[in-house]
Amino acid sequence: MKLIKIAALGLLVCLSNFSLNAQSKKQSYSFKKGEILDILLLTTKPEGGALFDRYKKTAFPVASKRSYKPQPGFIIKESTQSSFHPQNFLFGKWDNLESREKFLAEIETEVPDFHKQRRDIWSIFNMTYYEMTKDISFEIDRNKYNVVTSYWKKDANAFNTFKKEWIQKSKNKGGKNILALTKGISPLGYYYNPDYMVITQWENKAAFDAFYKENLKMNHKGVKDVNQFVIN
Question: Phi-psi category of 142—alpha, beta or left, where left has phi over 0 and alpha has psi -120 to 50?
């Protein structure tokens, strides 16, 4: 099961990768209650592109059968907190948790060398998926300055206090939280499961920088780790 879960990651990323090529300035997303939203972070190896075509032919049909739909993704421009810097930030969608888990259970049987293909294509491949508890819709405008922030908590009470202050400070400085996610599931082997992930839209870099300076001065005693980067 561990290998199956790890293998699933590669397929999800490559499916989403196609959506990077034809994107408008504004990307709209819609998820119904019960659907699964995947967040994928990846870096493709220099030789990975040449191997992708075979991967697409062998792995795509399995995911498609289980309802997977690639969504438009983004290039990661720079990291503002932490040294972790993947190339791409991608979304994916499944009809429901059952469909997603069936994919996890069958991919290795249907594509025996899936693990090797995945390792040969990507040097970074991390993923978290979330089951929607209600209908949601959101839009990410590429004309704005969009920042993804992920926090891992060290102490629940202290972190909740920090998060409330963080949200209020970002709002006061003109930030608009486009999407906030909690309670994700990260397959073993490709851990990226923050306690709080939020996409915030700013009018420009100067607006974000004003908040950023205040953010760094906040009491971080409840924070175990942070990863933050700009997407476009």
Answer: alpha
